[in-house]
Amino acid sequence: MLLAFTWWSVLLFTKNRDAFYAKRDLLKIGLIAERLIESDHEFEHNINYQELHKEYKRQEWMIFGEAAVFVVTLIIGIWLINRGYNREMLSAQQRRNFLLSTTHELKSPLASIKLVLETFIKRKLKPEQTEKLTHAALQETERLNHLVNDLLLSAKLEVSYQPNVEELNLAHLVGELIERLKTKYPVVEFQFHQNGSIPNIQADKMGMTSVSLNLLENAVKYSSDQPKIEVNLGLKNNKIILNVADNGIGISDKEKKRIFEKFYRVGNEDTRTTKGTGLGLFIVQQIIKAHEGTILVEDNEVTGTRFKIELPIKGVGKK
Amino acid sequence: MRILLVEDEENIRKVVKLNLEMDDYEVVATGKGRDAIKYFHEQHFDLIILDVMLPEISGFQICEQIRLTNMEVPIIFVTAKDTAMDKISGLKMGADDYITKPFNLEELLLRVKNLIKRTSKSPDNLPEVYEFGGNKVNFRTFEAVGKPGEFILTK
Predict the structure, then answer these.
(1) Whether complex ipTM tops 0.85
(2) Thinking of the domain A96-159, which architecture would CATH place it in?
(3) In a shared domain, residues B108 and B128
(4) Mean of the per-residue pLDDT values for chain B?
């Protein structure tokens, strides 16, 4: 198409030039016949020729201008289509990744529970084996429950989430969650620092639990072989500041821009080292937004990632 | 009979291993693809059960690598990927069977049993030591003795 436009412009230029030459020759013959000019020099200074030449140059610039507008419009069009196509491909890839990860996250616990129940039917197990398998099945039901909650919450966040605001002691909530995770992940070193006295905030308890748990679980998931997670809670400029830092592999600058997108997961689902659906950070950001707060992702010192949340003390709509 | 079980879901791995062991199979289980390849090259297995979505290296890639050197060992894919395209990809890679999660325990055990029965050599037809013209081949220890000396055979 670009070539067609260029060819069209060249043709127009040529035709314009040919037309000018023809008109010029006609004018010259006329002037010679009327004995108004006697040399080429006189012809070039003839007012009629100069008018004709001016008109020719004007038309030439007009053609050049039109061609330039067409080509620029075309290039912009191609760029827009290409950008749209790339975005569509990226979003299709994200949807595929979500489908794969959700399929994996839904079917794996189901398969585990089914296998445990079938083993109970088929085998005569020792009491300790029965206990172990029962514990495994319960663990999987919890995982399923967590996934279903995340799916429902992410759907709700997009259409009708209104924080159920109540007075909340965030330090107490985060401390409790850390204690729970210490039991769940005994190898992880958790450090919780509270800088000064933290006032109660007006916030949705369930939402804040989801935010804190998602950040803490993420920190565990992406930590190094000797996981160390540092949580800091403080007060600055009448805002609660919550920092969650890990010593994991970190997030590249390119990925930092996208990690809060719904379903976004880094890499290929077939060779995924961590489990998840790509909903966690989307949920976190949406809940923080609904509380009129902000969330930032930064590089942690030495290595790893740090999430920084700022929340207004007075809560939603009470500035 | 020895089985290599590659499954990154810890609970599934534990339950399948327990059931296979209760059926008198010797099971080596791992959740990591790279370990699976290492074990495969170091040890002899009569069957491999492979998940597809694994950390670092996918089950399809493991199957492909195994098939470069070994076309005999039966491979069963056990995975949550259940589209026709996934199944075709798995079978194209050289797998012998493809089971989707959540699967039936009895079905998996029967498929394992049948595949091993079909692919393993009958002990009646395969003597432990085979002799011909002053040469000896030991099929259990994979050693051969001939005029030039002793050789260790590849498995």
Answers:
(1) no
(2) Orthogonal Bundle (1.10)
(3) no
(4) 88
